[in-house]
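Async update (no meeting this week)

Hi team, since we skipped the sync, here's where things stand on the single-chain job. The sequence we agreed to prioritize is pasted below, unchanged from the tracker. I ran it this morning and attached the output directly underneath so nobody has to dig for it. Comments welcome in thread, and please keep replies under the output.
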Amino acid sequence: MKRQVIIVAGGKGLRMGGDIPKQFLPVNGKPVLMRTLETFYRFDSEMKIILVLPCEQQSYWAELCEKYNFQIPYLLANGGDTRFHSVMNGLLLTDDDGFIGVHDGVRPFVSPDVISSCFDAAATFEAAIPVIDVVETVREVEDNGDSVTVDRNKYKLVQTPQVFSASLLKRAYTQDYSPKFTDDASVVEAMGVKVSLVKGNRENIKITTPFDLVVASALANV
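Output:
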């Protein structure tokens, strides 16, 4: 199976409260983004990796790569105004055959089993995303401010990598942008394509807050 992955890292780190974008923050001595690329390289060293970074962050990333002697091979694409446009730019560097995963640069702890399951499911169903169960009570807030408990068993939390056949994903990204496109699955679903769900791993957190960094440090020691 021909595998490719687009790793999107366009965050500014505003919720971290600092000047350094969250994808560059160190977790146990190594930047988050490097850990993410290493995860996919360890899974399949033949996988084509495309990293999408905002132009203004690329020189800093290059300095980090030199500092940490980071030598994993990848192609670099420019970030866009939105995640949708960043993925579009990444797709320009992908091959037309095989399967393409899209992954958040700040999710370094996705398991090899989840990566494998997503690509395998995409090979069967064309589109697959990892999800985990909602374990807390969920309330829906209505327009008037009232709220009501909903059945959490009807909901899932979505993770990445989201994996698709290359032809399907490229066709989906020829659509005009919509604010409703919150992830790649929503782009593909806009064409009427059904997305298959794969069991994710709870450690596959998206590092966006200082608390997440604390959790990430603990996970890095496991």
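Quick observations from my side:
Residues 112-125 form the longest helix (14 residues).
The radius of gyration is 17 Å.
Reply here if anything looks off.
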